[in-house]
Design a protein that fits this description.
Blueprint lengths: L3 E9 L3 H9 L4 H4 L6 E6 L11 E5 L5 E9 L2 E8 L3 E12 L4 E11 L5 H28 L16
Antiparallel strand pairs: 1-7, 2-3, 3-4, 4-5, 5-6, 6-7
Helix pairs in contact: 1-3
Length: 163
């Protein structure tokens, strides 16, 4: 089977902590990621909460949700895999965050093998569009927070531990 790769890069004047905070605030993604992502929420928090390894996030629009599991997360980014739908035989995503003077460089990479070989080119094109769009929106939201002095504020508001 053919492995496909998608890469996107962006820069933000915001610091890396602000980028991580936005990534961790999955419940808030739909506030800045529309129209690419309409509904988002943590289904399960990881350790440490909320976005540590084992966390499961649900993104999309009913009935077409994608469930992603966080594999690793630190101050330099996160890695994740898609657990449903079973469109992929293998899927590995990574968001790398690198301090740059001034601000932060953000790289989002995806490698996948489609379950159905014929779907590969379509999925590749769709993911190129979605990943590049999400990254642009993430960088723009971080820029907005930077410009308004919101950087450093915790974007994530805990409403209690989810199951």
């Amino acid at each position: 089977m053919t492995e496909y790769r998608v890469t996107a890069a962006a820069h933000s004047r915001a610091d890396s902590a602000a980028i991580i905070s936005l990534l961790d605030d999955v419940d808030g993604w739909s506030n800045w990621a529309r129209p690419l992502v309409w509904q988002t929420r943590w289904e399960r928090w990881g350790q440490p909460a909320p976005a540590g390894p084992g966390a499961v996030r649900r993104v999309g629009l009913w009935p077409g949700f994608i469930r992603e599991q966080i594999l690793s997360r630190d101050s330099h980014g996160q890695t994740y895999t898609v657990i449903t739908p079973v469109t992929f035989r293998c899927y590995h995503g990574a968001v790398h965050i690198t301090p740059a003077s001034p601000g932060t460089d953000i790289d989002w990479q995806v490698q996948f093998v489609p379950r159905a070989a014929a779907a590969g080119p379509f999925l590749h094109k769709a993911l190129q569009y979605v990943i590049a769009g999400l990254l642009a929106k993430l960088a723009a939201q971080a820029e907005s927070l930077y410009a308004t002095g919101g950087v450093g504020d915790c974007c994530y508001k805990s409403e209690g531990v989810r199951p």
